[in-house]
Write a structure and sequence with these properties.
Layout (H helix, E strand, L loop, with lengths): L2 H5 L3 H10 L14 H9 L2 H7 L8 H11 L7 H4 L6 E7 L4 E7 L8 H11 L1 H6 L7 H13 L3 H22 L4 E7 H8 L16 E8 L4 E9 L5 H18 L5 E8 L7 H8 L5 E2 L1 H5 L2 H8 L2
Parallel strand pairs: 5-6, 6-7
Antiparallel strand pairs: 1-2, 3-4, 4-5
Length: 309
């Protein structure tokens, strides 16, 4: 289906078409591991880790570790990452003979007068046994590389949050390539006014300092119209979907609907909308241009921007 045929549909049929053409994921291959981050994070520890290889297989591991740390205190900087932590200071709760207590271990500026406490802590974590039994292999660099890959998985949420914005920018670059169009990302009313001389009414959301920041904007010099774009992708459900649908509907009705030389497109996708069909269906009653990535792929965004009046 093309945009012309789509626009002839009722709002309910548009909603059904939208729901039936969604995709299951927006995760590109780079989503799973940011290898550059992994390499950069391990680089600062590489010399220390190669020195700490000395402890592998040592039977008197506590004495050897104490001696090594006293002679080269900077080696302690690499202990947290060996414990899969990015903290420079680590607080540990423990039971003493008669009381509970919390010990703080500073691995950047270690208190060497308490080196025995550091050794007791490392022993209690199990790290010294792992080194003693040589369970890691022959290279702590290789071990920490693997640890970094695991820690980097925590960044997937952030990568997932910006993935649709990255996809939008790629599509906008392609859109302007062979057309008399200009685009901007993270566009504000102020930047649009400065760049193209058009006034985008500010959203009524008082919580947004500095005004709303749209994920993208495309300017068509032939029509003198700017199309502001919001994009998101939801793999899972939750109350946020209902809130977003309501927010964008309110924004369109109160700020953008009657604005001169301004159009609005909401690009959304993902199976999460299965859990929030009613809010999205209601949004279709207010917002004319709600499309998904399949529809973008089929030229809907291009036709909206080129043909808006």
């Amino acid at each position: 289906m093309n945009l012309k045929s789509y626009l002839k549909l009722s709002n309910n049929d548009k909603f059904e078409y939208f729901m039936n053409t969604r995709i299951s994921t927006n995760r590109r291959p780079t989503y799973w591991v940011n290898w550059e981050n992994v390499r950069n994070n391990i680089k600062e520890h590489e010399i220390n880790l190669n020195t700490l290889n000395y402890l592998l297989g040592k039977n008197n591991i506590k004495e050897e570790a104490k001696s090594l740390f006293l002679s080269q205190p900077k080696l302690l900087r690499s202990i947290p990452i060996m414990l899969a932590s990015r903290d420079e200071k680590m607080n540990s709760f423990s039971f003493g003979d008669r009381e509970m207590k919390v010990n703080e271990f500073d691995f950047i500026n270690p208190d060497l007068s308490k080196i025995d406490d550091y050794i007791k802590f490392l022993d209690a974590t199990g790290l010294l046994d792992v080194l003693k039994n040589n369970e890691i292999g022959s290279s702590l660099v290789d071990y920490v590389f693997g640890v970094q890959v695991g820690l980097d998985s925590n960044g997937r949420k952030n990568r997932g949050g910006t993935e649709n914005e990255n996809i939008l920018e790629i599509n906008l670059k392609r859109l302007v390539e062979n057309n008399n169009l200009e685009y901007s990302t993270q566009a504000t009313a102020r930047s649009i006014k400065s760049k193209w001389g058009l006034v985008v009414p500010e959203s009524l959301d008082k919580k947004r300092n500095g005004g709303r920041r749209y994920d993208g904007a495309v300017y068509n010099p032939d029509t003198n119209i700017v199309t502001v774009i919001e994009t998101n992708f939801y793999n899972g459900g939750g109350s946020k979907l209902k809130a977003v649908a309501g927010e964008f509907s309110d924004m369109y009705n109160t700020s953008l609907k009657n604005a001169s030389n301004v159009d609005f497109v909401w690009i959304s996708d993902g199976l999460g909308w299965n859990t929030a069909k009613n809010p999205m269906s209601e949004a279709f009653q207010s917002i004319p241009n709600i499309i998904n990535l399949t529809m973008v792929n089929n030229g809907f965004l291009k036709d909206i921007v080129l043909n808006n009046k």
